[in-house]
Write a structure and sequence with these properties.
Layout (H helix, E strand, L loop, with lengths): L3 E4 L9 E4 L2 E4 L2 E4 L2 H11 L3 H5 L5 E4 L12
Antiparallel strand pairs: 1-4, 1-5, 2-3
């Protein structure tokens, strides 16, 4: 199962768009993170998306990577 990135910020109305380091997520919704999105994130930030959002509260990452280990995945 691919990663899913969810944003649930209680101080903003549902539907407010958040830019999560290049991944657009509306407040109160979840976006499936594709392999291509993971690759772009890794190329831009030099760290896997799990390192940034894997332990978040407002923006939360669940699921597993689509990348193979040699490509920067787990």
């Amino acid at each position: 199962m691919a990663y899913k990135l969810e944003v649930d910020h209680p101080d903003f109305p549902k539907g407010t768009e958040f830019d999560c380091d290049g991944i657009l997520v509306k407040n109160g919704t979840t976006v499936e993170v594709t392999r291509e999105m993971e690759e772009l994130f890794l190329a831009k930030w030099g760290t896997p998306i799990k390192d940034i959002y894997g332990h978040g509260v407002i923006a939360k990452l669940t699921g597993t990577t689509e990348l193979k280990k040699k490509d920067g995945g787990e």
